[in-house]
Design a protein that fits this description.
Layout lengths: L3 H24 L23 E15 L3 H5 L5 H5 L6 E6 L2 E5 L3 E3 L2 E14 L4 E14 L7 E2 L3 E14 L2 E15 L8 H48 L17
Antiparallel strand pairs: 1-9, 2-3, 3-5, 4-5, 5-6, 6-7, 6-8, 8-9
Helix pairs in contact: 1-4
Length: 258
């Protein structure tokens, strides 16, 4: 199952790996760029490490039919769906509403990129919204012939995805507002114009954000429908055994549908 969090990170790590591979090509004596000599650093001005900044994000929404969407999103039952946990994503709780998510490896030009995210789910019982925030990101690179992964240095990710919902006559309007900023340290000897790299990568990132956030809401709606059917089946079973029993599912907040 494809989720926004995973796919956005896939793109970011690929961009970071591209820059790192370019930097390694300048340094490695037997790389494909071995015939290109690096310029000498100016004595008057030391060679500095610079960063490129990619800006993504999008806002999108969809209608969802049903009555219990708020209850679902404000309960821990929705945690896995919000984090994108599935057969290829391993999420472990490491604190209160804090998860460490091991993403699948991404293969590229013989390299393997392995991202590990620490994500916090921020719920506000007084508001019809929650936030999926990336607290930290560690991106590991496995190079050909190396038995151990190396931590990719100089890559910063600032990501917050606010999920909100509002009730109407036929159900809910489910919306997502994603803000995403990525900073990647440039390798020494990187000659492409920084503005061009930032503009091109940011445009790609925004298009991917728009596409994957639509998929994220669709997947979240599907998870809610499965949860609602399970809850309805449980209520029916309890009523068959004891008509007076009216136990409700565990929720983190007192939910109002108005």
């Amino acid at each position: 199952r494809t989720h926004a969090l995973r796919c956005l990170l896939d793109l970011m790590t690929v961009l970071a790996a591209c820059l790192l591979v370019g930097g390694m090509a300048w340094h490695a004596p037997h790389s494909i760029a071995h015939s290109v000599q690096r310029p000498r650093a100016s004595r008057a001005r030391p060679l500095m490490r610079d960063r490129v900044h990619f800006v993504g994000g999008t806002t999108t929404s969809r209608d969802v039919v049903g009555k219990g969407l708020a209850e679902f999103l404000l309960s821990h039952d929705s945690d896995a769906s919000l984090l994108g946990a599935g057969s290829d994503v391993d999420c472990n709780q490491v604190g209160t509403d804090l998860y460490e998510c091991h993403m699948p490896q991404i293969g590229m030009l013989g390299f393997q990129v392995r991202p590990v995210l620490t994500v916090r789910l921020e719920r506000d019982c007084t508001a019809s919204s929650l936030c999926i925030r990336v607290v930290s990101a560690h991106i590991y690179l496995v190079t050909p012939g190396s038995p151990q992964a190396q931590l990719l240095q100089g890559c910063l990710i600032d990501s917050a995805n606010e999920v909100s919902w509002s009730a109407h006559e036929d159900g809910w309007l489910l919306a997502t507002d994603l803000e995403l900023r990525v900073a990647v340290e440039l390798p020494r000897g990187f000659y492409l114009p920084r503005a061009s790299v930032e503009r091109t990568a940011s445009a790609i990132l925004r298009r991917v954000c728009a596409m994957q956030c639509k998929q994220f809401l669709l997947s979240l709606e599907h998870s809610y429908e499965v949860w609602a059917r399970t809850q309805n089946a449980g209520r029916t079973q309890r009523q068959d055994h004891s008509p007076s029993a009216g136990a409700s599912p565990v929720s983190l907040c007192a939910v109002s549908t108005s």
